[in-house]
Amino acid sequence: MYQDSVYTVRTVVLDAGHGGPIPGARGAKSLEKDLALQVVLKLGKAIEREMPGVKVLYTRTTDVNIELYKRIEMANENRADLFISVHLNAAPERRVRRKNSKGKYYYARVQNKEIRGTETFVSLFGRLDEQDESLREKAARENKDILLEENYEENYGGFDPNDPASSIVLSLMKNQFRDKSIELASFIQAQYAGSGREDRGVQELSLAVLARAGMPAVLTEIGFISNPNEETYMMSENGQAEIVKDLVEAIKAYKKRVER
Asked: 11-258 maps to which CATH number?
């Protein structure tokens, strides 16, 4: 666990988003839970191969769902030095009015399939209602898995993902590792950009999976599964290899920085 005077990166917890009956975002040919797990397992092997002495732990290695609070609880209990959650993004659906061939209007839900790029999130320090609408929607999508958990009110201190105002519950779990989390997230985004990926930046968000982190923690979105080109890229061996390389190089750069 992080301490200013003796901090070294010895244990990394990798978290593949969603799982089991909770698929996450859906693409035309794939599911978020499956691609996130594929990338995480390859990332873990790469860290062990290229960073001797660094221990890798996984919140899941198969297609099962783990409650969000248990994911970060595992990292805390194992005194992890880093927590990295891997997810895939999706453009929000919009309700639009259209006209059919007979001239009658109807409503359809559509996505902007051109939206692409990577972004990495750290736990929000502040209020969610200070953020723009797109980030509020993003937080709601990522946190809605809570509703499928037993006793979620107790597990998350009264947080209700259906109530934007209650996000202050997560905000008040102040993350003393905010600066280090932002530093790691910045290294990750720099690596993505260096590989030619569109850089959507580092942002703060009220995410339940990060709220109680006792170490620097990030959630990285490796691309938009709703974009056909990015989905194909993230499904491919070459695409996954590049994503893994970017993440490993970012962890190496972060480790070198904090241990100097």
From this structure: 3.40.630.40
